[in-house]
Design a protein that fits this description.
alpha+beta, Chemotaxis protein chec, six-stranded antiparallel sheet, about 25% strand, globular, cytoplasm, SpoVT-AbrB_dom
């Protein structure tokens, strides 16, 4: 399975080193990919971490945009602002660059949340606030997003 779906609580040190949970490292190894891309999330103050293959797939779509259309060029520039590559070191850590650490407000307690082809890195307090804020509306959101899908056709 190439998807990330688990949630982990971790710590980040002052230098931005984040020790990944062993099960997450094993998953990365199972998909033969410890080369990662870290970027700012579009809608939240968190980071998105992509293995190389899903990142390449996403960038192929983005590179298909006509750069002679100003809004496309602006989008590409903003979407890729601050993007950094990272690798899992021998101690099963990744280094979160200072600018990205500041953007996401990462201090000490961290949540890693799998969201499909990539995972997010959140400050724990921000993650808990986001989840609590959205719980009340989750049933309605679920119906709006998933209600029209015929799951029998997906099998």
């Amino acid at each position: 399975m190439n998807f990330f779906f688990e949630t982990y609580e971790c710590k980040i040190d002052d230098k931005g080193r984040l020790k990944l949970p062993s099960s997450l490292v094993k998953h990365l190894q199972s998909i033969d990919n410890q080369e990662l891309v870290i970027k700012r999330a579009v809608f939240q103050k968190c980071l998105e971490v992509y293995p190389a293959k899903p990142w390449e797939k996403l960038m192929q779509k983005i590179n298909g945009l006509n750069r002679f259309v100003k809004k496309n060029a602006d989008f590409i520039r903003m979407f890729t602002a601050g993007v950094k590559s990272a690798e899992v070191d021998k101690a099963e850590r990744i280094l979160i660059p200072k600018d990205l650490k500041t953007f996401a407000g990462l201090e000490k307690d961290i949540v890693i949340s799998g969201v499909g082809e990539f995972f997010e890195i959140w400050d724990k307090a921000a993650y808990e606030e986001n989840i609590a804020t959205n719980e009340a509306d989750f049933a309605q959101l679920s119906e709006e997003v998933m209600g029209e899908i015929n799951f029998d056709e997906l099998a």
